[in-house]
Amino acid sequence: MPSYPVNPRDPDDSYLGFWRERHLCTLTTLRPDGTPHVVPVGVTYDPEAGLARVITNKSSTKVRNVLAAGPDGMRVAVCQVDGRRWATLEGRATVSTDPVRVEEAVRRYAERYSRMPSPNPSRVVIEIELTAAMGHG
Predict the structure, then answer these.
(1) 109, burial (CB in 10 Å: exposed 0-12, middle 13-18, buried 19+)
(2) Quick one: 36 exposed, middle or buried, by C-beta within 10 A (0-12, 13-18, 19+)?
C-alpha cells in the first residue's frame, strides 16, 4: 500500500485488506475545550456504507465528546499502525443507541477481531460517516 489519499468508499484491495487485519486502533475526538482526546479502540471499516464503527459504553468520554458537539456530530479520525504501515479514516461521528445498529457494529467487531465482545447493556456505537482516507504501506 503506497502512501496516498484513498477514496473511503472505494479503497483498493491493499488498503481494504489492511483494515481487515486484526489491529488495535486509535480514535481521536475533541474535548469541549478543543484539546484532542486519543484512546485505543477496535474499529471496523465498511466502505460500502461509507462508515467506520466503534462500539463502546454510553458513559465513555469519547461518547460524551461526540454528543457535546451537537446533533450534527463531530469531526474525528481513527488510525491503525503496523510498523511502517498505517491507515487513517476521517469523518463525522455520531452516536447511535439503535439496537439494530449496535448489533451490526458488534457483529462486525466479532468478525474483525475474532471474538465476541462481552455483553454490555450500556453499549452504543459511534458511527463515523467517512469523508477521507489515507495510508502508507
Answers:
(1) buried
(2) exposed
Q: Mean pLDDT, consecutive 10-residue segments, the chain of 137 residues?
A: 81 94 97 97 98 98 98 97 96 98 98 96 98 93
- Give the domain ranges of the chain: 4-136
Closest to 108 measured CA to CA, from 39, 35, 47, 26 = 47
pTM of the model: 0.95
| Residues in a beta bridge with 92 | 75, 129
- In the structure grid, which three cell numbers stand for residue 83, read together? 510498523
What are phi and psi for residue 44, nearest 5 degrees? Answer: -115, 145
Instruction: For the domain made up of 4-136, give the CATH fold.
Output: Pnp Oxidase; Chain A (2.30.110)
DSSP string, the chain: --SEEE-TTS--HHHHHHHHS---EEEEEE-TTS-EEEEEE--EEETTTTEEEEEEETTSHHHHHHHHT-TT-EEEEEEEEETTEEEEEEEEEEEE--HHHHHHHHHHHHHHHTSPPPP-TTEEEEEEEEEEEEEE-
